[in-house]
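Hi C.,

You asked whether I'd gotten around to modeling the 435-residue construct. I have! Everything is below, sequence then structure, no commentary in between.
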Amino acid sequence: MATKHEQIIQHITSLPVGHKISVRQIAKQLHVSDGTAYRAIKEAENQGLVSTIERVGTIRIERKKRENFERLTFAEVINIVDGQVLGGREGLHKTLNKFVIGAMQLDAMMRYTEADSLLIVGNRVKAHELALNEGAAVLITGGFDTEDHIKEIADEKKLPIISTSYDTFTVAAMINRAIYDQLIKKEIVFVDDIYTTYDDAYYLHMKDSIEQFYELNEKSTHTRFPVVDDNNRVVGMVTSKDIISKPSNVFIDKVMSKNPQTVQTKTSLASVARMMVWEGIEVVPVVDQSSRLKGIISRQDVLKALQQLQRQPQMGETIEDIVAQNLDETDEDETIYETEVTPQMTNHLGTLSNGVFTALITEASNRLLRYYKKGDLVAENLTVYFIKPVQIESKIRIKPTLMEVGRLYAKLDVEVYHGDNTVGKALIMAQLIDR
């Protein structure tokens, strides 16, 4: 019989996507304590069944497929940008396929806006309406609200409309960073990525006989099987060595090895590989927190995963990487750099974002230090002066000057020009890291 904890997980799994969940509600419905309900809801969150959003609550979400790890739900976006839901709460569980920065004319913006995307835009009510009608959610930057009829459209179409106090560049950078973090995590392969699930795994029950071991051995060609009790909990392992010279009618629980090594789905590939090498194990049971069998992982699974990982390493790219790629040396001087202000670099007013400005002067300063073979910088103190706004599609030049430099520190003065006009300045005090 399933425990109360397992019953709650099963109940949550049966709820429709988008359903709101509370500790008191679960405790009342299933006649359990608030503490038991709380722990089960946290476990459901770890399993990707629910998501808790500040000022909204806990909602049932659709568990993302493994191949969609680089995508985010709108519920996750709210947590990332510290946003507030203005409408369309019932669509928070949905997954966004891409996001679009709305720093252009409406007709151009709509060419890139499609169903299941997220439009990041400022206080442009018409853009909010057009995006929702195209099937896209809306993220309003700058802390702005929107009109009531827009919220009604969002509720009707079950498409979230979210407000955040951050500017467009910062929001895009935060979302990119979240995706990039998931890509980095994906490089760390877990048991969950490669194990053989319960439906396809071979195992024995305690009261099975040695004769059934031989039958399973002939069917699977395996020589090692997990042993489970009546509640499907792993209680032992049995191998071909354990049954040598034993009568075929002897029960498995009389010959099995008790307290076997087990792993969980969040155990890393490196940990499993080390266990198999040092302990000489060929097959390890995969269990949940209650020691119930979820599947098995074999040495062949581990070897294949290691080979695949070497052939196809995962890579990710942040907004800062994109900005740095567009920064080039000028023809007349290798220590002066230039770039064009693209839509991704702008705030809700269509001018160069403060965050991008800081990223550009830091990257230019870093390149200057590399040019002089002084190493990479880690900014300790950064003073920035924004003198004039820089419009979208403007070309700017960044001129860093090395004022002082030692073995472990550097001081740089940076000037930013648009044409002949100075649009910004910065003073950087930094530590140097020897490359």
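If it helps when you're writing up: The first strand starts at residue 20 and ends at 21.

Thanks,
B.
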